[in-house]
Amino acid sequence: MSDIILHHYDLSPFSEKIRLALGYKGLAWKSVKVEAVPPRPLLDALTGGYRRVPVLQVGADVYCDTEVIFRAIERIRPEPSLYPEGEGVSKALSLWWDRATWKPAIGVLVAHIGEHLPEAFLKDRKDHYLGYDISKDAMAPMLPAYVQQMTALAEWLDSMLCRTGAYLTGDALSAADLTCYHSLWLLRANAGAEAIDAQLGLSPAVIAWMDRIAAIGHGTVSDMSPEDAVAAAKAATPDPAFAAAADPSGIELGTAVTVTPDDNARVPVSGTLVSADTQEVVVAVDAPETGTVHVHFPRVGFETLPVETAAQSAA
User: Fold this and answer.
1) pLDDT at 273 over 70
2) Residue 190 contacts by C-beta under 8 Å, 6 or more apart in sequence?
3) How many CB atoms lie under 10 A from the CB of residue 183?
């Protein structure tokens, strides 16, 4: 098998949950560090311009968004499973947590460290990523609401743990644990655990759960340059192991499509549909730097449309 390559940056919370998943699986992987703010020309060549991080690469297969990255990791090493109680509950909890906590978590974060965020980062997130101003001054009026929301949601985690035990869905860790951990990790890593635990009223059960997840670690990591990652893609051919033609909307393989996030960073990736099922869609993308790569996306959270339909919608 080709090397497992993760394109990420240190303080990306979405990257942290994938780093932990790789550690949980006991996998060795290559670390390609990218900038928190584009441009990222070599990563764009691999993904067709996908805007968000992290991205997982295995040879000439490129996985965008943490849900489909979890799915890829599960195929690579099925045990221990990231879905010990089935996919449904873990995926539902993950989607809920990501979308419910992202803005309030940012609001709490910038109250602590907003003055240290570079202007280029703030401008990028406002103009190209989130669509709103995350500067300390802009977020400050809503800070009480953000704290209220995060406190309430953290109490829900406590309620789950009181019922299930060590982890959110049962006795074994699941993808939901890694997702619900990552935004609290972001706050504690940047503002200090003691300050965040007190501000959000994190319970002993939640704190102990976070300690258990942190202890997993990141597996066996070695550095790789972006240039070497691109060369690895060009030297490989896409893996035919995931081959499906069951698009629930009836789009035929070979159709020119765009795939676009439905929430933020809505930059479409254009390619040729080469595989699809109810959970995953794969498009072929060509670039001089990489040759043909297959770029994988999850269904939930993304819109896959024929190019003509996407153009009509945009108009």
Assistant:
1) yes
2) 11, 109, 112, 113
3) 25
- Are 303 and 74 in contact by the 8 Å Cβ rule? The answer is no
Q: 36 and 121 in contact (C-beta within 8 Å)?
A: yes
Label residue 308 by pLDDT band (50, 70, 90): confident
- pTM of the complete model: 0.96
In the block, tokens 């942190």 appear at 214
Is residue 296 within 8 Å of residue 68, measured between CB atoms?
Answer: yes
Burial 279-305 (b: 16+ CB within 10 A, else e): ebbbbbbebeebbbbbbbbbbebbbbb
Q: How many CB atoms lie within 10 A of CB 91?
A: 21
Share of the chain above pLDDT 90, in %: 95
Taking a C-beta distance cutoff of 8 angstroms, is the pair 179, 92 a contact?
no
pLDDT confidence of residue 310: 59
Domains identified in the chain and CATH numbers: 4-80+221-314 (3.40.30.110), 87-214 (1.20.1050.10)
Rounded CA gap, 89 and 175, in Å? 10
Cα 154–157–162 angle (5° rounding)?
130
Residue 16 identity (one-letter amino acid): E
